[in-house]
Design goal:
Length: 234
């Protein structure tokens, strides 16, 4: 039996998949950018601000992340300043994000590492980024994409969910999803994939109550054809 993954996205092609996602985002009434793209555009892709913004964004809504980064960088706009910051003041500045006590400790420690180990410059390679405190593969890849314009695929909950729903991968963890996507998707699409999937996940392919009725990919979507469509016919 031929799987939906084969007759779906492979028949359509990843370029057309991303093109349709881009068009659906453009046609959406929700015009909010992601916190990282706002930070990239506002700060000229400053890798330090992208790094700290990504750490603050963990398990936090984009609106709260944007508020916290705006307040934080008004006071501590360099690794040196943040490395020597008063934790109580940092905590007050970022209190709009979840787990702000832990994140206060994390971002100060990261800033100190950048100053002490990398001469005040955020490293631009994956291996070095992964040596930073509280930095995993998603955060490191976000810094590469949004801070350095280097091709990588940051996999958050949106990317993991959508890649599996569409049938691009069949994986259990974000790490597995990243590994599979980097094998099958041409590198020329890597820079835009995270932004497109996150916006698509916010506006259409939502975690709960995905808007399959307006999705132009549903005919090719593993999730729709195997789960949603059969229920609607029952």
């Amino acid at each position: 039996m031929v799987s939906q993954r084969t007759v779906g996205y492979q028949r359509l092609g990843i370029g057309e998949v991303l093109k349709r996602i881009r068009r659906m985002i453009e046609n959406s009434t929700d015009k909010r950018a992601t916190a990282l793209s706002e930070l990239r555009d506002a700060e000229g892709s400053d890798p330090f601000r992208i790094l700290i913004g990504t750490v603050l964004s963990h398990r936090t809504r984009d609106e709260s992340t944007s508020k916290a980064t705006d307040r934080l960088f008004e006071v501590y706009d360099t690794p040196e300043k943040l490395a020597n910051a008063d934790p109580r003041k940092v905590k007050d500045l970022i209190k709009s994000v979840g787990f702000y006590n832990m994140k206060t400790r994390n971002i100060i420690r990261v800033a100190k590492q950048i100053v002490d180990e990398f001469h005040g410059k955020v490293p631009d390679d994956l291996e070095s980024l992964l040596t930073l405190h509280a930095v995993g593969r998603k955060t490191a890849n976000c810094v590469l994409v949004y801070g350095f314009h280097e091709p990588a695929i940051p996999v958050d909950t949106h990317v993991h969910r959508i890649a599996n729903r569409l049938g691009l991968v069949e994986t259990k963890t974000p790490e597995q999803t990243e590994e599979e996507l980097t094998k099958t998707i041409p590198k020329r699409y890597w820079l835009e994939l995270n932004e497109l999937f996150v916006r698509f996940g916010q506006t259409t392919c939502k975690p709960i109550g995905p808007r399959c009725g307006i999705c132009t990919l549903k005919s090719y979507c593993k999730y729709y054809n195997e789960i949603v469509a059969p229920k609607s016919k029952a």
